[in-house]
Amino acid sequence: MLLATQLERKFRMEDKGQEIILTDPDEGLSPEAVLNFYSNSYPLLTTATIAGPTIQDDAVWFEFKTTIGTKG
Questions:
Q1: Which residues, listed in sequence order, are joined to residue 23 by a DSSP beta bridge?
Q2: How, if at all, do strands 18-23 and 49-56 pair?
Q3: Has this prediction a pTM greater than 0.85?
Q4: How far apart are CA 22 and CA 40, in angstroms?
Q5: Rounded Cα distance, 22 and 70, in Å
């Protein structure tokens, strides 16, 4: 028998070399809306881009990538 389940969405970002895992505030929000939601708590996300989704460990992962503070 085949069983289909919905995978949980998870979001990650890196700040000062530290990986931060962010939970999904609302499954109905788009990844862009989640980015806007968390930008109130993490100002560096105001200029971030979204990478993904990738599937890993039974979850759908989106990564918020920032370029502030890097050269090149």
A1: 10
A2: unpaired
A3: no
A4: 13
A5: 23
Q: Dihedral (C-alpha) 23, 26, 27, 31: value to the nearest 10 degrees?
A: -70
Q: pLDDT of the chain along its 72 residues, tens only?
A: 888 888 999 999 998 889 999 999 999 999 999 999 999 999 999 999 999 999 998 899 999 998 765 555
In 3D space, the residue among 25, 22, 45, 24 whose CA is nearest the CA of residue 35 turns out to be 45
Contact call for residues 53 and 60 (beta carbons, < 8 A): yes
* Residues 40 and 49: beta-carbon distance below 8 Å: no
